[in-house]
């Protein structure tokens, strides 16, 4: 390790923040761009499964809450793109990489939302899992990223409560609503567990990322924490987690649970999730059909500028 | 008139907000740029909030135990009282923004007049809403100007949107018995008196947008009276009302 | 298995016909040529007729007082048992005809096998349906060939349709407990045994159409078990079931 | 009148049929092309308002009946285009003239269908009015047209009965269904009366067309006949025709009734009907989006032909 690198690492070890103008190793920059960009893309693509139910929301209040939530996600996307831009990449470039399939987004959004209870399950489980990942990132070493995460986490935990509230209404509702709630839990449980990524022993970037504090906990730690927090919530709702092996382990003080189907996880990563094709197609369509708008507004701004210059 | 004109009037205000808010919310996650996604959601949220106020009050005036949700999710097309303009499909982003501008310009004039309503509750809703709609109009007119005076393609699309939507403008200014009753009670203005100011604003905006107002002022009608909506509204309701219709006993 | 496998099986046959028939009927009045409007309507009519037979029988087997209409118009997504392929959106005309061909080729093989079913009622429905589907397959394969081996554009579009839909083919041949029970009872064939003939037919047709079968045979699943449909089905139901949901007490 | 024309008129007067290869006056040919083409276009555009409810039909049987009906309309379009083609115009040319707005279709199809009861009202009133117009045309002087009308009339009267059957179910149904039925009658009554065209005194082509037997009755005669037949049917259904002046006139033996709003009629003709823009847009979209299909199938047919020739 050369002296520059050593100083960098020591600063991180001491709990200092790295800021955009500071020197940083190429790998740190690249990894952060990948990680923040992927997170930003997840917020953007994540609008789609919930957007799918906005026009079918059952009450005006539920529609407003859901719409505000999806709007927050767009806002999170915006903060995160800004954070990534401080690392020398443009939002346009990242968007192109998303649309071409070169950059990824969280696989969870390749699962479909099929009933209103899914709006509850997404909030409760998906946002819940996201928060597990994100709360420690408020202490991440890169300043702009850490600050974006502070804002995001505040809103996400609000979303999670809203999701749980939907689940509660469903679980305590009519027989059909209870059935919907259970069905949603059945479909989202394992995909939510997958959100923490494969077991650490199979994870590529982990060790270096943890040293750099752009990853704060191992995947397995976070997954266990999520299970431990979620199981009692499911019990409270009167819903059954679709895992017959699930059991509290008195010795460890944690729940033992079944691993998700990692073969499915890798298929989804490869593009074979239930909705990969549709999600990317939807984003591409929005982008392509919006081109004339972006070009039109740009042309107008330029005309305006040159008219002003001519007048001066 | 079979029903209370005040109830009718409140449904008109509420249904305009409900239907346009729904249309705008259809854009969720698919706007041309992220900032527009956020702005469209803001507008939809304002309109949903206004819906709750207007239809909530309509339900109280009716006194039949229907709240805003019941009115929004359990009436069929013929009971809707929105103008035809707001139920027209989104089309491309330009068509959506042109519809928004043509409505906002009327909406703000109407709300501004309603601030002086003899009915204090209506005046209060109008005052709150007018603040929001001032901002809507600012955005929609800016966008109409920006895209009208943008590229050749954006100009062409905006002119096509204007030509398509202009025949739905007139309905907002046509008065009927309900409007007469509202005017007599000092509750709401005669729709016709809002026209001159509207025309002036539209003329200025279209001039800045380098767009040409269609010559024919023919006006479709049948939305605000409920006599004949377009085919689009029924399709919107199949989505909007689905859950309430499929699970009438549930609370959400 | 929570329900009677025969009921499940009949729902699968009926829901395939119901959902595909609905999709095809969405074309009404908007096909590329008048003759296609007529042909598509014919196909939809056949499929609706088959739906009535399969779901009618399903209702009888269930014995809970649900007839074909109740099953078609009052179940929510999770109770539908059609394969994912048939609920995929129409897309352009080429995508519609590719979906039709990929389904018809399985459908005819399945119906032909069902003619030998130990259940006489199923055999009778299959025999009647097989005649209709023979004609469907003739048309859809001709169209796939004609458009695949047509212009550069039509070739490109057909290849894109094939690439898009191929991942939905596998599900038709995946067996489960329901299929095993049907096979044991001599009611229906093991789905897997239909694959070889299907692949041969598809290979020949795609060759004539100058189209290339995707290499990856990855198969989406979740439709025929009902475990996880696509988002499209729910949207279809909002339209299909609207009137029955909005006016549950009416007869039509 | 020159001798050829005189002989032509005498043949018509004697009840003879004109066939495609017979001599005919230019005006006769032109008028027929206009009339048959317009009728064909009406069948095609007429698919749209009913097509609007196929995906929302309330039972499987109703869906099948409606779909079969719309399919019949496409078939009628086909017969009529064939009849027009015998006069030396192509279907493609007529289609282009429809799509550009040069040729008309029946104005009734510029009204929207808003509830399921409209499927009843269209069958009962619109097909009912169409039959009034078409039955006499089975005796029209131009052979191919007369023969097409024979086939069409048989199917149309079947459609009308189906429409009446829907109205009956609605009128005898729940309160909401009765309301729908009445609302549909309210919206379709006057537009149906307009289907016979303006009063004969205002009609341009009438006298010559009647002499040529391509028009068999005056507009007012047919309208009166329609009213006389329809009023008792409405009474039978327990529905109220939206005309306060409607009254049986003992002296004439006919119903007196209010004229439709002819100003509205001319606005619809001009393009200002509730759905003119949408109907033409829908047809243009179908035609434009179908271009690649037509071209593709044509190219394939040519390839096939040349392969066969090469093989011979």
Summarize the structure.
The complex is a heterotetramer, with two copies of chain A (312 residues) and two copies of chain B (252 residues). Chain A is mainly alpha-helical and 312 residues long. Helix content of chain A is 67%, strand content 2%.
Which key phrases capture this entry?
heterotetramer; A: 312 residues; mainly alpha; 67% helix; B: 252 residues; 11 helices; globular
| Number of DSSP strand runs of chain B | 0
Task: State the end-to-end CA separation of chain B.
Answer: 35 Å
How many DSSP helices of chain B?
Answer: 11
Tally of DSSP helical segments of chain A: 13
What's the gyration radius of chain B in Å?
18 Å
User: How confident is the prediction overall: mean pLDDT of chain A?
Assistant: 95
List the helices and strands of chain A in order.
HHHHHHHHHHEEHHH
Number of strands of chain A: 2
Largest sheet of chain A: 2 strands, antiparallel
Beta-strand share of residues of chain A: under 5%
Low-confidence sequence ranges of chain B: none
| Oligomeric status | heterotetramer
Share of residues in helices of chain B: 55-70%
Question: What is the makeup of the main sheet of chain B?
Answer: none
How are helices and strands ordered from N to C of chain B?
HHHHHHHHHHH
Backbone CA Rg of chain A: 21 Å
- How far do the termini of chain A sit from each other? 56 Å
Structural class by SSE content of chain A: mainly alpha
**Class by alpha and beta content of chain B:** mainly alpha
Shape of chain B: globular
SSE topology:
The complex is a heterotetramer, with two copies of chain A (312 residues) and two copies of chain B (252 residues).
Chain A: H1 3-13, H2 26-45, H3 47-51, H4 60-85, H5 91-99, H6 117-134, H7 143-171, H8 175-194, H9 206-211, H10 219-237, E1 247-249, E2 254-256, H11 262-272, H12 276-289, H13 291-311
Antiparallel strand pairs in A: 1-2
Helix pairs in contact in A: 2-4, 4-7, 6-7, 6-8, 6-10, 7-8
Chain B: H1 5-25, H2 34-62, H3 68-74, H4 84-87, H5 93-114, H6 120-148, H7 152-165, H8 177-184, H9 195-208, H10 231-240, H11 242-246
